[in-house]
Amino acid sequence: MYRYFIQPQVNVYTNSIIGYEMLIRKQAADGSWRLPKSFSAIPIEIQIALLKQTAAELSLKVRTLSFNVNRTQFLDETMTQALIDAQRQMLPVILVVEVTEEVGEDQIDTHQLETHGRLLQQYGIQLSLDDVDTGENTYSRIEGLLKVADEVKFAMQNFRQEHREKEIPQKLTNWKSIAEETQTRLIVEGTETSEEAQMLNDLELPLRQGYYYGKPRLFRFKDDPR
Prior knowledge:
This protein is 35% helix and 25% strand. It has helices at 44-58, 71-75, 77-90, 110-121, 139-142, 156-161, 168-182, 194-202, and strands at residues 2-11, 16-27, 33-34, 64-70, 94-100, 126-129, 151-155, 185-189, 207-209, 217-218. It is globular and about 45 Å long. One of its GO terms (molecular function) is cyclic-guanylate-specific phosphodiesterase activity. InterPro entries: Cyclic-di-GMP_PDE-like, EAL_dom, EAL_sf.
């Protein structure tokens, strides 16, 4: 059985939850919830059905729901139609599609992604670029996509894992300028301590996500066993 764990995205200026990121998990035989070995292997029908039901039960509590896809899934015609159908049923909740990049996807044409992003936006779906400035998502590689992106997400945890913590303040300053120039929403992920929260206060970056504001939690449907 699959379910989504949801993690809040907050605006500290208004002290409010602006959305949730949905993180799919699979229940193991012992009852624990685990990260799937391959997201691509999860049937689209299952992902979309869970998305729709989660949105329906959260519709009065949140403005946006973020849904993760890799670049291959993002361009898949079946996934595209499923996302469009889901957005129609989710209103007034806005679907934000977070595009990640997995190994082997570096040959996918950026122009193709840009065109597809504009198509989805015609149906009210927003486009988010995840993990900017780490892995393959450097500025030079995603510059074209910034023309259509509604949101970029900077993951501080990625820099910590690579022992690049000292780079974070300057990188965030750079991405704040880029976000302002492109009129793109910037969410900072991986906020885990009061010191990091204060750093973001000093940089005047109010949109945040991380354990400091809330860990991912299982979203139980109304008819799920307790």
